[in-house]
Structure formats: C-alpha cells, structure tokens
Amino acid sequence: MLYILGLLAGLLDYTLFSFLTGRGWAMASSHMLSLLAAIHFCYLLSLLSGWQKQPHAITKNYIRFLSVVLAGLFLRGGLLGLPVFSGETHIMLPAALIATSFCIWITVIVFDRVDTIFPQLNNWKKFGSLLIFYTILLRVLYLGNIDLTQEEAYYWNYSQHLASGYLDHPPVVALLIKIGTMFFGQNEIGVRIGAFLVWFVSAFFSYQLTKKIFNRETAFRSLVLMATLPIFLGSSMLMTPDAPLVACWSGALYFFYCALVPGSTRSWIGAGICLGIGFSSKYTMLFLCPAIFLFMVIDPSARRWLFRPQPYLCAVIAVVIFSPVLFWNYENNWASFLFQSQGRIQAQAEFSTHILFLSILVLLTPTGALAAVSAMRPRQSIDMSHMSAWIKKQRIYIFCLTMALTPLSIFVLFSLTREIKLNWTGPLWLSLVPFMASSMASRRGKVQRLVVKFWPWTLVTLVFTYGLIFHYLSLGLPGIPFNKTVFLSGWDDLAQKIDNEINMITVQKGRRPLVVGMDKYRIASGLAFYRSKINQKNHEISDINDTTGYHLFGYQDLMYSYWNQPDLEKGRDLLIVSRDKKRIGPEYFKNYCRSFTEIHEIEIKKRGKDSGHFYYRLLSGYNPEKL
Question: Which secondary structure element, helix H or strand E, spans residue 602, and what is its range?
C-alpha cells in the first residue's frame, strides 16, 4: 500500500506539473501546486483507507505531515533551480519530480509512526543531525541558483584584478573567489563555494572549543548552532569578507583559549596564523586583540605570558602574513586604512545603537540573544570543596566573556555617533556559542528553562524560513516580485541585452564601446560579472576592463578608479547604463564627450517576472579633460 501511494503521488505530481507548465504557468507555481496537491490527495487516501492508525491524532499528524512536505518542497525547489532543469522540459525532469514525491511520501509515513516530529528535549543527537544535514543540503542545492548580491559581484571584480590590497577590504575574499572560479567557472557557485567550504573550518574550531570547555554532547549542539543561526549560515551562503573572518576568528579563539587557559605553548603559533589571515580577510579582526590583551592583564595565570616570547612571536607571525596588505597600503598612500578609519569617523553623525541591538536579535534570534544574555550572568558562588575546579570554570567564563564584550563595547561606542552595519558584530558571538550550546539542555533557573523550551521551535522555524527565502530568491514565490535591491535578480538578462546592443553598435561604428555603470559600484560590478558569465557560456573571450564605473566623469566608485585610468579611454565611445533615468542626464557627463544619443530603456525579467527597468545612451568621443 505504501509504495503504491508513493508512486501514485509521483505520477500525479508530474501530470499536474506538466499540465500547468503547458498552460504557461511559471516553474515555481507549477511545482509547488503540483506537489502539494498530489501529496495531499494521497494523504487523504491514506486516511480513507485506514492507513492512519491514530484517528484521534489527525491534527498532530497533519502538522507533522505538512512540515515534512514543506521541507521536501524547498529541497525540490533547489533541485529544479539547477541549470540542468532551466529549460523546464529536460528529459531528467519526470524522474526528478517522481523521485522527490516518492521520497517525501515515504518520509511522511515514517514520521507518522513516531509520536512527535521533535525528539525529547534532552535528545539532540537525532534532531540536531537532521538540522545540520538539512541546512547543508539546502546550501548545496541553492548555492549556485541565487543571483549574486551587488557586494559579491564587486568582490568578484577584486578577483579579476588580484592584488595584495584594495581600497575597502583586504584580499582574502578575492583569493577565495579566484580559486572557486578556477574550478567551477565564472558563475554563482564559483563565487560562493569558498564561503561554503570555510564554514566547515568555523564549525570545526567551534566544536573543538566547546568540547574543551564542556563535553562532546555540548560540542555537538554547538555544531547545530553553527549550522542554523542566521549569522553563521548567512556568512557561509554569501561570499563576503565575513566568511573567512568568521573562520579565522573561530580558529583564533580556539588557539588563544588553549594558550591562555590550559597554557599550551604551541598554540601561540596557530593563533598567530589565524590572526594574520583574519587581518587579511577583514580589518574587524583587529578588535579581538584588545580582548586578548585585557584577559592577559586581568587573569593572573595568563599574565605571565606578557613576560614570555610566545605572544610576541604570535604577533610577528600575524604581521608577516599581513605584510602584503601593509605594503599595498604603503604604495597607495595608506588608502585602505584611511578609508576604513578616517572615512568612517568623518561620516555623517548618526545614532544607531538601537540598530546595533536590533541586528543582534536578527543575527542570533531572540532565543539566541536570551541564551547569550543568560551566559553573561555571574557564575555560581564559590564551592570551597572544589576550589580548583571552580577557579578553572571562572577563568573559562571570564575568557569567553572578555572575547565577546570587549569588541561589543567598541561597536556600542561607535554606534552612539555613527552608522552600524547588520553583520559587524557577528564573529564576536563565537566565544559565547559554547555557553549557548550548553543552554540548550541546562534547566537551571527560570530563564534557562525558558531557553530550553524555545530552542527546538526557534531552530525549526529558522530552517523553514531559510528554505522559503532560498526558494523565493531562486525560483520565486507565486504573486511575489523578485528582489530588486540587494540581489541582482534578472541581471543575466540585462547583461545579455547590453551585450546585444554592444555588438550592434560595434557592427555599425566599427569600434567597441566601453560600458559604464552610473552608480557607485552596483551596475559596473553586476554587468562585469554577468557579461563574463554569458561570454564563458558562449565560449567567447571576455575583457573585464570592458565594464567600468562613473569615475570617468569625476565621481567616486571605489576600486574602479584604480582599475580603469580615464586617460587610457580617451576618444572611446561609452555606453552609460543606469537604473535611474536622471543619472544619465547631460548634467552627469556634459563636457566629457562630443555627442550623445537619446535615452533607451531596457526591461529585464527573471523566470518570466518583471525584474526591473534600466536606461542607457551612447556617448561619443570621450575626453577625460572637460571640453
């Protein structure tokens, strides 16, 4: 009976999917409706046939049933978003639809034989393993299906101009993207694979640190947090400097803990390596240094290291690894250091402390934030019969608290007068992950009992939210337009239409124009990446310098002024592109060219949905010196 129902669900699913797509429905709507309808039909048959042995628990069974179906739905959305199914009629599609429907149905039946979808709260092994496996599978399926963010496209441009430093960030993010695209090509998965892989480094060091502080069971729960909390999942899904920063911060915490608490001499070398790579990933790594120094000052046992060579060897190792970035800044008038320090300080005054604490709730979730606050509470009172164990616990507690509160205090002070970004505080919470993992099973006190109660529901809600968001960003959701701000939705369509226009102009005028994005870096970065992706797919040669920013007209566009010198483009035709029609008005480029055409409009789509409008015009006879 079970296998007949499973096969029936798969066949009904595919039949309905084919019917809907044949009438012009989008893949997202078709696959969601066909799967839900087919599975619900067979579920109803199971009720009528008496397969359900617990008629008194139909509501509870249905909630379990729907949870499993939604989990499978999001996974199938990632599968159908893969390039192999982009044509929607690929020969593998029937097999994929039937197989996923059958697997979901079997899983539903398996879940129907247990009392609850959640394990007992003290049994995290099966539940946590399921969460970890599911989030990893989600990332594998969606990593290459979601359009790049503007920042990721900008960092991809880093990788096309490899250097030991850049205006706004150190070079590790560029190196990771370069390696990823060498193996996977100029596409989204090539850009992001480095972020996905370094997550395993972060998770490994977090596990090891938690195991040293508590035990294996708690360490396993720390892996669950690393796999599900927004800050850690987000940094493993998007390629930004935060991805290697989190990995290096996690490694540095582990090695500094081994050096300062148990007193391992060799750990100073590992700490120096992690610091050096961390500095070369993002300058925020610097905020860990005052925390380390503060702990060495306030802890009597750690204070002895101030008079030994190992900490200074650690500093030398870090500086040596970081030295290429120093050399780049020296050659470029300390541009990056000034941009990240003086530039931030001189920015417009703005009170953002409330944004800072709101970002903590987003990064950790309210349950995680409550667990973190609980971890910051004073430890139990002294027990004279176990003095040595009590002292060790206090040292561990003070170490982890210092590693979190010292950087946090810097951000709080900064937020009093300047803008704070959502992701800035992310790495500092790594030092509290062991205590947050411990809170998932500890029942001491009312707050901790509350945290224990909320954790399973919080994590399940997070996992389903990730699936829904990833599905939306990849295939879309019925009735909801694609994101047009953070992600470059539909920009492969934009790049193709711009390239078609470029080829037409080249044939007409006998020379190839330069594409200029008329904003800070979004348009230039996105077009450079997606034009390169299209050219590689068509086996055509792509020149990264065929796309640049509007520094040609005297505006600031970050690194593009370093990569494309205006003097070298003298006399060239420019195709200027903007999302805002006003940005390509004559006031933005007058006196920089001999003539210009009328404004033309481009409408772009993603999976049949409107994804934005862009405007362009052609300028002839560019002159970097005003005419």
Answer: strand 600-606
pLDDT band, very low/low/confident/very high, at 385 (cuts 50, 70, 90): very low
CA dihedral for 43, 49, 54, 56, sign (positive or negative): positive
Read off the amino acid at residue 148.
L
Last residue of a domain, one of 470, 502, 526: 470
Residue closest to 81 by CA, chosen among 475, 403, 396, 589: 475
The residue behind tokens 């509870």 is 60
Question: Are 199 and 133 a contacting pair, CB within 8 Å?
Answer: no
What ranges in 475-571 are assigned the alpha helix state H?
A: 491-509, 522-537, 560-563
- C-alpha 537: how far from its chain's center? 25
Query: Is residue 453 a contact partner of residue 389, using CB atoms and an 8 Å limit?
Result: no
Strand partners, 548: 516
Q: Which two three-digit tokens encode residue 298? A: 């306030």
Task: Say if 260 falls within a structural domain.
Answer: yes
Closest Cα partner for 181 from 138, 216, 148, 230? 148
The predicted pLDDT at position 493 comes to 95
Rounded to whole angstroms, the Cα distance separating 66 from 80 reads 20
**Per-residue CA distances from 437 to 1, 128, 134, 375 (Å):** 43, 11, 19, 10
Q: What is the C-alpha separation between 138 and 79, in angstroms, rounded?
A: 10
Q: Are 456 and 123 in contact (CB under 8 A)?
A: no
Number of structural domains the chain divides into: 3
Is 558 found in the same domain as 516?
Answer: yes
Helix residue ranges per DSSP H, 332-352: 335-340, 342-345
Phi, psi for 604 (deg, rounded to 5): -110, 155
Reading the block at residue 217, the tokens are 């069971």
Q: Which two tokens stand for residue 415?
A: 């937020």
Are 311 and 210 in a shared domain? yes
Q: Which of 470, 502, 525 is the last residue of a domain?
A: 470
Residue 254: which domain range? 140-340+365-372+429-470
Least confident of 3-7, 80-84, 415-419, 602-606: 3-7
Inter-residue contact 26 to 476 (CB < 8 Å):
yes
- Give Cα 426 distance to the centre of its chain: 12
User: Is 286 in the same domain as 254?
Assistant: yes
Mean pLDDT of 355-380: 85
> Looking at residues 6-13, what average pLDDT do you find?
82
What would the two tokens of residue 182 be? 């060498």
Q: Which of 32-46, 222-236, 455-469, 472-486 has the lowest mean pLDDT?
A: 32-46
SS in 3 state form for 114-168?
A: CCCCCCCCCCHHHHHHHHHHHHHHHHHHHCCCCCCEHHHHHHHHHHHCCCCCCCC
pTM to 2 decimal places: 0.93
**pLDDT value at residue 108:** 63
Nearest to 272 by CA among 291, 293, 255: 255
Question: pLDDT digit string (tens) for 97-117?
Answer: 777 776 776 666 555 544 444
Q: Do 212 and 86 share a structural domain?
A: no
The per-residue pLDDT for 379 is: 55
Closest CA to 284 of 234, 330, 248: 248
475 inside domain: no
Q: Which long-range contacts (CB under 8 A, 24 or more apart) does 46-55 make?
A: 46/5, 49/1, 51/1, 51/2, 51/5, 51/109, 52/112
Instruction: State whether 229 and 285 are in the same domain.
Output: yes
pLDDT exceeding 90 applies to what percent of the chain? 67
